[in-house]
Amino acid sequence: MAGIYIHIPFCKKRCIYCDFYSSTHQEYIPQLIDAIIKELKGRKNYLQNEMVKTIYFGGGTPSLLTENELGKILAAIFESYSVEETAEITLEANPDDLISSEYLSSLRKLKINRLSIGIQSFDDEKLKFLNRRHTAGQAIQAVSNAHEVGFNNISIDLIYAIPGQTLQQWEKELNIAFSLPVQHLSAYELTYEKQTLLGKRKQKGLTTPVDEEISIKMYETLLEEAKKHGFERYEISNFALPGFYSKHNSAYWKQKIYIGIGPSAHSYNSTSRQWNISSVEKYIKAIKHQEKYFEKEELTLNQQYNEYLMVSLRTAEGLDLNELEEKFGTELKNECLKSLKIFMNNKMVTQDNEKLCLTTKGIQISNLIISELMRI
User: Fold this and answer.
1) What separation in angstroms does the CA of 322 have from each of 223, 307, 310, 316, 325?
2) CA-based nearest residue to 316, from 342, 341, 352, 343
3) Please, are residues 242 and 232 in contact by the beta-carbon 8 Å criterion?
């Protein structure tokens, strides 16, 4: 299987925690769509004729695009690629863009069958802190509207460990989330990237992160509440009802081939990775004049091994030792087991037949465990 990712980098305003490439210059939308269509057509051989099973509009805020604009991009995809009839087609959306039932209905007409709604919080005070442009009321209304027009595969994003947030407040957020007609939840601990406004506030002492112990309890509460409501954890930060795992993200974690289209989008074909230039203006210009618009890296054996370990251990399915040996040989398999021994002895990693999985305790230090396995 193969996937297509379309990066729509435009936002009305930037969130203080986001370190993804984005732009507030929406006047470039028409030109960008033309460039995206040209890139799609020009790179149709990248997927090696594999059937496309997932299409994902990410951002940025793809829901800023109109029905006509999204339709042009989808038409180009269906024209140039072999797309499975039941392909998962996801649109990331901001809640206040989904208040209109008319717009939601237009998305359904385009065969978009999955929504990923960036709610982040059901607390207006926390939304204001994060510099989000919607309200808690709009978030709830967006999910309700999407359900009413027929969307039955709805994912929402939440952030926890927001400065000032208590465990009780997080429990309230989860109660609201699981009361809504959603089938998937992605929940992330707030991170402080140095180049973001939030990261700079932390460096200046203007923002104090939530205590680590409270953050751990928030994650444990997330696990408990998700299980109570029938949601399965299939990756460290991702939970879904049975049958509603994100096919697109699951393909990433299983290292399936995918193509990334648009400014800053990444592509992967198992032996190399390439990424487009992180500038709307430069990307449009380069596509228009048929100039180089991406960088490419051939992956060494160590890099392929590192990526395999990293994505596998993040999933509930875990690391398959037979597959590891098949891909990289007995020597690297034994090296992996040797490196993991201390974590297995401390009950942070479990082994069931040929599968290695992080325990709840291990998840809390997953970055450390994975870094210990990396080969330079």
Assistant:
1) 29, 17, 16, 17, 5
2) 352
3) yes
Q: What is the pLDDT, as a whole number, of residue 19?
A: 86
The three-state secondary structure class of 369 is: helix
Token pair 């709604």 in the structure block, residue = 117
Identify the segments of the chain with pLDDT beneath 50. Answer: none
* pLDDT tens by residue, 60-89: 999 999 999 999 999 999 999 999 999 999
Radius of gyration of the chain (CA): 21
**Do the Cβ atoms of 255 and 311 come closer than 8 Å?**
yes
Residue 64 burial by Cβ neighbours in a 10 Å radius (0-12, 13-18, 19+):
middle
Measured CA to CA, the distance from residue 256 to residue 251 in angstroms comes to 5
Half-sphere exposure for 375 (CA within 13 Å, toward CB): 17
Predicted structure pTM score = 0.95
Cβ neighbours of residue 319 closer than 8 Å, sequence gap 6 or more: 309, 312, 313, 336, 355, 356, 357
